[in-house]
Amino acid sequence: MKEFSVLEFKSDVIIVVGHFGCGKTNVSVNLAEYLSKDNKTYLIDYDNVNPYFRSADSRDYLSGLGVTVISSDFANTNVDIPSVSPLVYTALTAAQNKGKVIFDVGGDMTGAISLGYLHDKLKELHPEVLYVFSAYRPLTDTPEKAYQILKEIEASCGFSVTALVNNSNTGAATDLSDIEETDGYAKKLSEISAIPLLFTSYMTEKAPDIDGEVLKIKNRTKILF
């Protein structure tokens, strides 16, 4: 076990996808926070599915760290109009000059469809696509179910997932054993998908005793429990 470093990212563009409620928005905000320490960073709220958990809600906090938060034209819409905010293109241009860009994409295949409007531009930048999962969500409570959703997202957005992120937690009540118990699940999902596990996130005081890399994150989204 070792602490994951954002310096390990091979691309300047990171696309974060996942099932509803897996915590991808919180992961996206935390990654933006880490990246902002050494880079000009943009966080693009590309979630047109869930208006409650939005990375744009962290705009004031992230702005204080120098992160530019951009709300896509798709936010709070049903993606009927194929248009993208000019600021998104500004961010992608910055990525060509070593700026860092994170896309927080809406849940499941429905949210991933909107990436199609940027497919050609993103393809040129060779993005890393992170699939965030939680073993404690009802529709991803087995690796096989999580894998099925992963394939649906890939088919919708036109990009292959390049790495997995284990964000399994039970909210404020999460302890080390909860995270450690999902290690086998994460290994199985990595095995059946043939995709490496990038890191396991944790919000506990101590890091979990598991294989692979871990990343300490904080709760930067609205708290339900």
Secondary structure: elements and pairs:
Layout: E1 2-3, E2 13-18, H1 24-35, E3 41-46, H2 59-63, E4 68-71, H3 86-95, E5 100-105, H4 108-112, H5 119-124, E6 128-133, H6 143-157, E7 163-166, H7 176-180, H8 183-193, E8 197-202, E9 213-216
Parallel strand pairs: 1-9, 2-5, 2-6, 3-4, 3-5, 6-7, 7-8, 8-9
Report what the structure shows.
With 225 residues, the chain is α/β, with parallel strands linked by helices. It has one domain: P-loop containing nucleotide triphosphate hydrolases (Rossmann fold). It is 31% helix and 20% strand. It has eight helices and nine strands. It has a nine-stranded parallel sheet with strand order 1-9-8-7-6-2-5-3-4, sandwiched between helices. Helix 6 links the parallel strand 6 and strand 7. It is globular and about 45 Å long. About 2% of the residues have low confidence.
Q: What are the salient characteristics of this protein?
A:
225 residues, alpha/beta, 9-stranded parallel β-sheet, 8 helices
Provide a compact summary of the structure:
The protein is an alpha/beta fold. The protein has helices at about 25-35, 60-65, 85-95, 110, 120-125, 145-155, 175-180, 185-195, and strands at about 1-5, 15-20, 40-45, 70, 100-105, 130-135, 165, 195-200, 215. The longest helix is centred in the middle third of the chain and has 15 residues, at about 145-155.
CATH homologous superfamily title: P-loop containing nucleotide triphosphate hydrolases
Helix content estimate: 25-40%
Estimated structural class:
alpha/beta
On the 0 to 100 scale, the average pLDDT is: 87
The tally of domains stands at 1
Series of H and E elements: EEHEHEHEHHEHEHHEE
**Uncertain stretches of 5 or more adjacent residues:** 78-82
Distance between the termini: 29 Å
Radius of gyration: 16 Å
Task: Please give the count of helices.
Answer: 8
Shape category: globular
| Main sheet summary | 9 strands, parallel
Just name the CATH architecture.
3-Layer(aba) Sandwich
DSSP strand content: 15-25%
Report the CATH C-level class: Alpha Beta
